[in-house]
Amino acid sequence: MFHVSSSRPRSTVIMSSVPRKTFTWKPRQVSDHRPVLRLTASGRRWDVRMVGLVSRNRFLVAHPMDDGKLIFVKEGESFDVANFDGAVLSAFESTVLRVVLGEAPGLELSLPPIEQRRRETVRRTRRAVVNLPCSVRYGVDDEALRAGFTGDLSEQGAQVAIEQPLPAGIAHVDLSLRLVVAGTVQTLQQRAQIRSQADDPRAEVSATLLGLQFEEMEPASRMALALFVCERLLSESDDVFGAIR
Fold first, then answer.
1. How many CB atoms are located within 10 Å of the residue 201 CB?
2. 0.90 exceeded by the pTM?
3. What are the C-alpha distances in Å from 219 to residues 4, 225, 237, 243?
4. Under a CB-based contact definition with an 8 Å cutoff, are residues 210 and 160 in contact?
């Protein structure tokens, strides 16, 4: 079962199981400055930051640049705009309504109504990118434990990185990790099925990646996990048009 607890003894047990040789790992990041929107025109593309909504049909973005220099844009030009919220890709055609110059140059673009936006579901569930210490238990023996890191997390599963692969024949594990949900630290323990096990493809990283699918959860535990994932996705500002859909 999936248990929620804020007690110190459980978290202490998890931390004490860390092997002597410290295992460090960082998930693959899209970018240190992850783009919010992608603009495309005439076969060229630029990743820009969303500055804000001007109204329900106008929004402002940072001015696109090439090699650190502003590109030439004039009013009336068109761009294809794409936004990915973690599960759904939204794309639409937009027109430059105003070119903003000065210390903070930008473009004011048109925002069409939702029925004029193309939407494609890329993933069934939204996954939050995290880097949380965790432990994976695959048996009752003291040695049947791996310390690792959770690289991404959703209500249905997680990707976990461990230093050494699991023994052959292991199909299920118990995943334990600590989350901060609504400002409270909680220890989550979940039975999961191993859906994949492979080496990290990065040459500079020595880790085994486990793809886990969670088994049945208690409603309270599922809600706690859903709140954590939602908070992380909101903090990343993935869905920049969510408020006006």
1. 8
2. no
3. 11, 10, 27, 27
4. yes
